[in-house]
Write a structure and sequence with these properties.
single chain; 51% helix; alpha/beta; 383 residues; Rossmann fold; Dehydroquinate synthase-like, alpha domain
């Protein structure tokens, strides 16, 4: 069977100091999309703008992108772009800033589209790059939005998250400089790092996995398991930061081609109903889903073979120990203390997780009752 893959856009830069590549980009007007104030406080926003100014470009900043960016924010940004007319859009920050930049790009290119539903299946996804190209510069080592075709945008009215994937949204330029990630707080380092590990391990057992994606997923997972505690303990360790940003990128190359699994289906759902940070939800859920997926022989073999390659015998235990090292709770109850409310929502959450786009590539497709059991197990910490 033919396995088409696209690993990145036309320009992929990585390694310490690669941010200066900006000076070589031929562009006239640049819209830079950022989240809160972290890129401003760290000096990275000023550095990025300065490099573009050296290249002769005019810049404008669209700020205030919230975690799990809303469609309202997307449309605000698209309107600002329409007034400015950029020929390059830059997502600078974590996954939310990069996802928002991608979504704003769609509605900047196509102002005739007015709703999120207009670009969701079964509607045809519009062509991009008539007005602008896209550059992503990650400040975290987790989401891999800089090399992915995917976004997650929240519905203002329902609070539910809409996932959308199309190769049109693959960034043209990805700049992965560890210096940009050095200001990440320890807990963000932990959560985004575990998100990256989840990307790798879900890609490894995806029912679309292939020879190339397996190589990428294994390399990324190995580096993350070895290096995340170092980056967590010392954020100024640029060698650890470089390994993490590269491993996150490589895990992204794997999953954007073969998709993910039910860790992400359930994490998206928990984010919608309980606003649990995505990487934190992934980290807590991952050991429980590894156990569930191990009932499928090919997944069990993949997990066991990978564990052996890193000198371990039990991948689930490896993940539990890594979570402990980087301060991740062992159960959802520790982050959602209202048990009565949580249990009352399980009948609502299970069908939503079942319908999530990541479910169809999990090695086992759970029934709704199985999703309910998994939500309970992960809440109570039952292995």
């Amino acid at each position: 069977m033919m396995r088409p893959m696209k690993l990145a856009g036309s320009e992929l830069m990585f390694g310490e100091g690669c941010l200066e590549y900006i000076k070589t980009i031929k562009v006239e007007k640049v819209s830079i999309v950022v989240g809160g104030k972290s890129m401003e406080r760290s000096g990275m926003l000023a550095k990025v703008e300065g490099y573009f100014h050296e290249a002769g470009a005019e810049t404008m900043v669209i700020s205030g992108v919230e975690p799990d960016p809303s469609f309202e924010t997307v449309m605000r940004g698209a309107q600002e772009m329409l007034g400015f007319g950029p020929d390059l859009i830059v997502g600078l920050g974590g996954g939310s800033a990069m996802d928002a930049a991608k979504a704003m790009w769609i509605f900047y290119e196509h102002p005739e589209l007015k709703t999120m539903e207009s670009v969701l299946p079964p509607n045809e996804f519009p062509k991009l790059r008539e007005k602008a190209r896209l550059c992503c510069i990650p400040s975290t080592s987790g989401t891999a939005s800089e090399v992915s075709r995917s976004i997650v945008i929240s519905d203002n009215e329902t609070g539910l998250k809409h996932g959308l994937g199309n190769m049109e949204m693959m960034p043209d330029i990805a700049i992965c400089d560890p210096e940009v990630t050095a200001s990440m707080p320890a807990h963000i380092t932990a959560e985004t790092g575990m998100d990256a590990l989840t990307h790798a391990l879900e890609a490894l057992v995806s029912n679309r996995a292939n020879y190339v994606s397996d190589i990428l997923a294994k390399a990324a997972a190995k580096d993350i398991i070895e290096t995340l505690p170092k980056a967590y303990e010392n954020g100024q360790d640029l060698k650890a930061r470089e390994i993490m940003v590269n491993a996150s990128m490589v895990a992204g190359m794997a999953f954007t081609n073969v998709s993910l699994g039910i860790v992400h289906s359930m994490a998206h759902t928990l984010g919608s109903y309980f606003h649990v940070a995505h990487g934190l939800a992934d980290a807590i859920l991952l050991p429980y889903i590894l156990e569930f997926n191990s009932a499928e022989p090919y997944a069990k073999k993949a997990y066991d073979d990978f564990a052996a390659s890193i000198g371990a015998t039990d991948l689930i235990q490896v993940v539990h120990e890594l979570n402990k090292k980087v301060g991740i709770p062992s159960s959802l109850k520790e982050v959602i203390p209202d048990e009565e409310k949580y249990m009352s929502m399980i009948d609502t959450m299970a069908p939503v997780a079942k319908k999530d786009g990541c479910t169809k590539t999990n090695p086992i497709i759970p029934e709704i009752d199985q999703f309910k059991e998994l939500f309970v197990k992960a809440y109570k910490g039952e292995n």
